[in-house]
Amino acid sequence: MLKIDQLELGPIQTNCYIISDNQKNCLIFDPGEESAKIKALVKKKSLTPLAILLTHAHFDHIGAVDDIREYYSVPVYLHHLEKDWLSRPNLNGSGKYAEVPDYRIKDADVLLTDQKTLQIDSFEMDLFHTPGHSPGSVSYSFGKEGFAIVGDTIFRGSIGRTDLIEGSEKKLLQSIQESLLTLSEHMILYPGHGPETTPAQEKKSNPFLVGL
Question: Which cofactor does it need (predicted)?
Answer without folding.
Answer: Zn(2+)
